[in-house]
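BUG: 3D viewer hangs when loading the predicted structure for this chain

Environment: internal workstation, default settings.
Expected: structure renders.
Actual: progress bar stalls at 90%.

Input used:
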Amino acid sequence: MPFLKTPESRYRLAQWLLWITPALWSVNYIVARSAPGVVAPHMLALGRWALAGLILSFLARHELWLERRGTLRAAWQYLVLGALGMLICGAWVYKGAQTTTAMNIALIYAASPVLIALGAVLWLGERFSWRQGLGVLVALSGVFHVVVKGQWLSLAQVQWVAGDGWIVLAMVSWAGYALLQKKWASPLSATARLATICMGGVLVLLPFAAWESMQADTPAWSTQATWLVVSAGLVPGIGAYWAYGFCQKMLGASRVAASLYLGPLYGGLTAWAVLGESMGWHHLMGAALILPGIYLASRQARET
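Structure tokens produced before the viewer hung:
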């Protein structure tokens, strides 16, 4: 790109992308809420990651060929990562979106960095301070506040939504996905590794998508279904991952990680403006607990 020839131009682009990248991820919430009645969850996830995998594999084709033997030896790792990152964090999010709101998805998912920090301490042996522990408790209390709709004193009267449970499981799976990526070192570049994980995810998703396609209530494939698959594969898939990697290279990991705190804000605003979802006090209170909790947990983790 001619306009990215100078370090100054690349730095300016990274500064803009710092604010745009969380918005790219929030597109997946719109896709998830638009999918019911149009495309089945596992078929949507399969199409999304098959498209992303094809594009990423083409971009990293030379590296993947050179590293093919090592990649095959570690194939089981990519299947596990694909199951966590593409099946559970993909199809299950779409399944949860059939009954819960995009605003709930954004807020519940916001606690995943806290679980990653906790898992890094318990599993990877990283240090854990009182401030990080406080952040974990505050953020998780915010998640539960959203799930119980703020009705702590009358839990028996809460109308439980199955979709919130699917999203909680997906959030935990995302934490496992991130921790295993850190635990299982790989010689592949970020692009090539993501391409192999996509391959693993596609293999895991195939039988579930095939089963869905044989169900009587599965929607027939349509132009709208294709549009949702392409949108999910290009925008929150490749677009967000590429932008995040570019910003991390130009601005540093800690600064870019802080931009992820914008995710719940963008997700909530997107749900309100695009999908017409109402914003309740339990959403605002949940966000008021989750965001500072994430900040405390991740900030201390970076400083120690």
